[in-house]
Amino acid sequence: MEILAYIAAAIAAVAFVVLVVYLVITLKAARETLHNVAETLTSLEQQMQGVTSETTQLLAKTNKLADDMNQKSSKLNSLFNGFKGVGDTVTEFNQSLRDLTNSVAKAANKDPEKTTQAIKWGTTLMELWKKKNK
């Protein structure tokens, strides 16, 4: 029976050695995997820093562009206000011409003889001016 105890102890020792060998192999594989994961994370961190840097630069350029657009927009607003002023002036000028035309028409209707005389003198003056400029 003693031999059986030695054989059992030997089998247990061999099983323990095999278990330790497989445990060592498994731990080495796990170590390599963890090393690869660490390298991947380091690479990912560097790439993220690059992306963050580029994003910050892009944001700064976008802010500059927005400021430039706001400045140009305000300049255009003042330009359009100037155009509005010109339009108002033209409208007032047209109204003044209408008023003048109406007053001339009323005066012509009141005294047709003077109107005829004025037209004749105007025609004569225009002909003299044309002859002088030829």
UniProtKB/TrEMBL annotation:
Top-level taxon of origin: Bacteria
Q: Which UniProt keywords apply?
A: Coiled coil, Membrane, Transmembrane, Transmembrane helix
What is an example of a Pfam family matching this protein? DUF948
Segments spanning the bilayer are 6-25
Question: Which regions form coiled coils?
Answer: 27-54
PANTHER family xref list: UPF0478 PROTEIN YTXG
Question: What is this protein called in UniProt?
Answer: General stress protein
